[in-house]
Amino acid sequence: MACVVQKFGGTSVGSIDRIRNVARRVKAEVDAGNQVVVVVSAMSGVTNQLVEYCAQIAPLCDQKEYDSVVATGEQVTSGLLAIALQELGIPARSWLGWQLPLRSDDAHGKARILSVETAELRARLDAGEVAVVAGFQGLGPDGRVTTLGRGGSDTSAVAMAAALDALRCDIYTDVDGVYTTDPRIVAKARKLDKITYEEMFELASLGAKVLQTRSVEMAMKYRVRLQVLSSFEDVPGTLVCDEDEIVERQLVSGIAYSRDEARITLVKVADRPGVAAAIFGPLADANVNVDMIVQNVSEDGSTTDLTFTVGKADLNRAIKVLEDQRGTLHFERLVPDSNVVKVSVIGVGMRSHAGVAQTMFRTLAERGINILVISTSEIKVSVLIAEEYTELALRALHSAYGLDAG
Amino acid sequence: MACVVQKFGGTSVGSIDRIRNVARRVKAEVDAGNQVVVVVSAMSGVTNQLVEYCAQIAPLCDQKEYDSVVATGEQVTSGLLAIALQELGIPARSWLGWQLPLRSDDAHGKARILSVETAELRARLDAGEVAVVAGFQGLGPDGRVTTLGRGGSDTSAVAMAAALDALRCDIYTDVDGVYTTDPRIVAKARKLDKITYEEMFELASLGAKVLQTRSVEMAMKYRVRLQVLSSFEDVPGTLVCDEDEIVERQLVSGIAYSRDEARITLVKVADRPGVAAAIFGPLADANVNVDMIVQNVSEDGSTTDLTFTVGKADLNRAIKVLEDQRGTLHFERLVPDSNVVKVSVIGVGMRSHAGVAQTMFRTLAERGINILVISTSEIKVSVLIAEEYTELALRALHSAYGLDAG
Q1: Beta-bridge partner residues of B194
Q2: For residue B268, what is the DSSP state?
């Protein structure tokens, strides 16, 4: 019997009526003769409320306690959906991260999945029961609750699909698929029928919130057929798949942006070997991810300015870590800047075509938009610009790459 | 080093500011040189909201899922209080029911505690860490989350105190002690300095919401010194202790009432041996507690009317169970009545003095209050009356037994 994993995001389970709706969608899959594992997020708004509680008590709180607090949102939804399924006559039970268990490492707040035990779950699926798994949560090596980072329920779903060798992993959300860019900003954005794992991975990494990056990474690794669908409308979604399944390839498939970044400039850092390690080592130890890095050419030969970006949520922690290291680092000033946006163009076509970056730089220059930092990879070009230019930049680039809908 | 258990109820942790306040109270106990275990309830209103969610989806929902949903309230508070303690420089961690584990039986929704494992907890207390235990929750034999019934955090606290052989178990709540009766109804109610375990047990069983019945039962069994105190004021509370610690004994110590009961009358049930078992067996199987039972004298020799009370929350379930058994029971009609209140007078002095019940019946009769059902035990007399007479009955009885404050 084929197994299908369905994942429903926060807005899809945002009210009791919507949870009932989800139960009906699950029932349709059961009626179609499939074994079904459902992965749920917290009801929309709940996680934010819980995060806010933690932050009110301590802006830099113990991540173990944070995880224990915020994981409750998914626990509630999983129980409620199991009840709703039972009301429709479908045997169902909820599974918490520690009950499966879904084991993760100990990077609390953004833990990585290590393994999923499925023996008992499989037996119950075989007995005709639907499994409702609380997403976003795992069991750490120390027996504490971990969470997988914002959007982590997507990764829970893909991990379940991989562990169960599922036919499909359907991600139901409040949009009906993956778009060339954010349709709330660019009215001419188009829905993609298919997108490659690689492109989806970059889109997600670079700000498209439709899927958590790790979920795509994991889907790519285990070749899980991932579909992004609307919870509310019965329309075809977007399939994330291998490159060779896609016939019509574009040079650029999508344009992503992220307002979640903040820029830190360390002014007049000693320009000597080992200084980068001295800066980024402690940040890594404090679990702060650093993204783009630019080191200016030293003017006086002894000091340099170093600019890099971190997640906005990590900015305070990063500043604290760096200030604590001031005695070692000898920088003159630390200049944080939260009013930035990272805009990225993505496409596997870039591998074989030059000029994609050039088009981006020219288009932005024509609009008078100053580029603060650039970073590139095989299939994307990212620039950091002032946040106020977000809409202007996205619309201009969407046209420049010929992505506008007819 | 002495260990103290402190329990804080829902209103005591009802906001972030109040959680900070609780942290300061815990700190005072730590500063006094004690090891501290804190047991917390859900923030006030949270459990009701979660119960409401379950009820909206299914009035008679799966109690396993119900438990998993409603246990989240305490999980949130335990994490938040641990963070608040850390902010005051006190090492602290939260403990969930399944993490200790606090093992219970499988009576989901009102499970009984079987054991508490404390080895790891003790080691951490010895290392100077405060333990913040999520109250109300346990781990069932099947690895599912259980809850201990409304007010179950009191029982969690006493169980922790018993398991750790604690010096005291302080129950912090929104009232400042145990009163002769509800001071919101009877202005002349007096706070008791001390009360016996037995009386407290009856008061709690019979509706005084200040402590969960099982917590008193367990405190009595393990001789845990239980104190009821205000979270908000620094005033002496009420000590629950052995009878011989109390010098001035009253005939009646307190008057309790409960609006949580509902009456069911089965009209014209077959009057033959085995009928009571046929009625109450299935109710017990469905986890419905039956309290007062009255069987009328049969008029025609073949049928009888049977009246009994169940918890209001169980009324729908009880009705369903009885209707399902209709084929076997052959009753003519089932008459439910939720508009009743149980009023009880309690006192260990009753053991040696007659006339306590007589005073009750006469006092109610003088006010024209009809008694629907009577039940008595060694140290209490309970009557079921129409709910509209609650206030009148309480005030009249409080005066009649000489309990009014000077």
Answers
A1: B239
A2: E
Task: Give every CB contact of residue B76 below 8 A, 6+ residues apart in sequence.
Answer: A50, A53, A69, A72, B42, B43, B46
Report the SS3 class of residue A35. strand
Phi-psi region of B391 (alpha: psi -120 to 50; beta: other; left: phi over 0): alpha
Total domain count, chain B:
1
Hey, are the CB atoms on A57 and B16 less than 8 Å from each other? Answer: yes
The model's pLDDT over A25-79, given as tens digits with 9 standing for 90+, comes to 999 999 999 999 999 999 999 999 999 999 999 998 999 999 999 999 999 999 9
> Are the beta carbons of B318 and B349 closer than 8 angstroms?
no
Q: Given an 8 Å threshold on Cβ–Cβ distance, is A93 in contact with B65?
A: yes
Q: Tell whether B29 is covered by a domain.
A: yes
The Cα–Cα gap between B134 and B99 comes to: 10
Q: What is the CATH number of the domain that holds B27?
A: 3.40.1160.10
Domain assignment of residue A72, yes or no: yes
Closest residue, chain A, to B101 (C-alpha): A143
ipTM score above 0.85 = no
- The pTM of this model reads 0.83
Question: What domain range is B9 assigned to?
Answer: 3-174
- How many CB pairs lie under 8 A apart between chains A and B? 101
Single-letter code of the amino acid located at A224:
V
- Structure-token match 């629950």, residue found: B240
Q: Is residue B330 part of a domain?
A: no
**Yes or no, beta carbons of B56 and A16 under 8 Å apart:** yes
Q: Does A82 touch chain B (CB under 8 A)?
A: yes
A63/A57 Cα distance (integer angstroms): 13
